[in-house]
Amino acid sequence: MPEKRQKRYEETRDQLLEVAWAEFAANGFAQTSTENVVREAGVTRGALYYHFKDKTDMFRAVVDLAHIRILSRIEDASASAPSITEGLRRGCLAFLDACSSPDIRQIALIDGPSVLGWAEWREIDTKHGFGALRDGLTEAKRQKALRADADPMALAYLLSGAMNEAALALSDPELSKTRRSNLRRSMEAALLSMLAAFET
Amino acid sequence: MPEKRQKRYEETRDQLLEVAWAEFAANGFAQTSTENVVREAGVTRGALYYHFKDKTDMFRAVVDLAHIRILSRIEDASASAPSITEGLRRGCLAFLDACSSPDIRQIALIDGPSVLGWAEWREIDTKHGFGALRDGLTEAKRQKALRADADPMALAYLLSGAMNEAALALSDPELSKTRRSNLRRSMEAALLSMLAAFET
DNA sequence: TATAAAACATACAGCGTGTATGAAAATGGA
DNA sequence: TCCATTTTCATACACGCTGTATGTTTTATA
Question: Are B91 and B48 found together in one domain?
Fold first, then answer.
């Protein structure tokens, strides 16, 4: 893999992804025109369709990036946890925090399932945040830190869905600052209660 | 309000909504062309844009219809419950069942938030299923059947999100029959455990 | 240095949405 | 009953956007 070519290739691809991220986040997938993206990226349509199969394929790369960034936040928060259950708690709170970003909210939570379809969206999430949650719950059960009748996979779906909706509600732009912080407090408390309900 | 006119008006509108429901459910909002809808409905573009402001407005009516049908199932199930908490349990299970329909899954859960925006989608849901859940939780707290520190609004968001994701996972077409029924059992058990965690 | 491949630019075809305008049917009043 | 008006829908068209086909330039290779 040659030197100059790889550099140029990655530069334009990264530039496209950066602009696409901003456009998809600000206007949503449907309202984003590829012409705007290539213009702001300083290239043309040709470059876009050389790097990506189509508009959806470019969006897929942006969604993947969003989930990577979410997982990074989760791992940072839960890495130094003294126990598996404490790691789960810290990871969940970090997830809520990460999804407070309007960008991630729009890209990963709102448009992702609709544009890519639920199955593929879930598949991407399974490679990152959802997978970490599922693995954490499985490990907790192996350590007898979870109730014996708890199914880690079912729990992962329920908790993931609960946290996604909580993040959407918390990052609602129409929410006032004080209501947001109040809601966040009660959301976090209720979420931790849910987790505790399945611990031994 | 004249006789023949109202009848004709409602007939073509209902016909459009029926066809639109089927198309949106089968192919999703983006892949549905209004030309297909009007052709299968036996009318032309003119009729569509007379009854609805645009394609999104027609989808809005379909989403509203979906939520109405969901709420109907919930009310049927929880009406004769002997207690408020039992009503909540039956209502939640009925919601899961109602959203097993591929149509409602695609329309209300996947495309709804993306096409209408989260705020408007949530507003519609608040008029129906989500509102019923919130009111039920509020009433349960008033009856001291919920823990004093439980915030009904926060709980409604978390439980609603959990159930939506559970319904999406359970109605995944790629799922085998046995895995689906196994997953449903553990999902329902976990969901009831979540509810029980907040009861007194 | 010549040739091939990669990376991107340009031009164009086609589809789908929304709008503007026209036609038919139904109502209400004289 | 007949005419005027409104409702309800049909027709025609303009515009934007996506994807593809082809051309051009730069880089690697022999």
Answer: no
- Closest chain A CA to residue B169: A157
Q: Which residues span the domain enclosing B139?
A: 59-196
Which residue(s) pair with B146 in the sheet?
A: B199
State the CB neighbour count (10 A cutoff) for residue A56. Answer: 13
Among B157, B168, B181, B191, the strongest candidate for a mutation testing the A interface, having the largest count of A CBs within 10 A, is B157
Q: What is the DSSP string of A116-179?
A: H-HHHHHHHHHTTHHHHHHHHHHHHHHTT-B-TT--HHHHHHHHHHHHHHHHHHHT-TTS-HHH
Asked if B165 has any chain A CB less than 8 Å from its own CB, the reply is yes
Residues A159 and A85 grouped into a single domain: yes
Q: Which residue's CA is nearest to the C1' of nucleotide D6?
A: B5
Which residues in chain B are closer than 8 Å to A115, comparing Cβ atoms?
Answer: 30, 114
Q: How does pLDDT run across A144-154, given as a tens digit for each residue?
A: 999 999 999 99
Residues forming a β-bridge with B60: none
What average pLDDT score do residues B168-190 get? 97
Q: Quick one: pLDDT at residue B151? A: 98
At A198 the pLDDT is: 98
CB contacts under 8 A, A 91-130 vs B, are 110-111, 113-115, 117-119, 122
Residue B181 pLDDT grade (very low, low, confident, very high; cuts 50, 70, 90) = very high
Residues B101 and B134 in one domain: yes
CA B22 – CA B28 distance, rounded (Å): 10
- Indicate the residue among B9, B29, B52 that finishes a domain: B52
Q: List CB contacts (< 8 A) between A172 and chain B.
A: 118-119
* A30 has a chain B CB within 8 A of its CB: yes
Convert the pLDDT of each residue in B122-169 to its tens digit.
999 999 999 999 999 999 999 999 999 999 999 999 999 999 999 999
Same domain? For B67 and B166 the reply is yes
**Looking at the 3D structure of chain B, how many domains does it have?**
2
pLDDT bin (cut points 50, 70, 90) of residue A48 is very high
pLDDT recorded at residue A54: 98
Mutate to test the interface with B, among A194, A195, A199 (most CBs of B within 10 A): A194
Footprint of strand C on the protein (CB under 7 A): A 5-6, 8-9, 11-13, 38, 43-47, 50-51; B 2-5, 8, 32-35, 45-46, 49, 54-56
| Dist. CA A95–CA A77, nearest whole Å | 9
Q: CA quadruple A12, A16, A17, A18: dihedral positive or negative?
A: positive
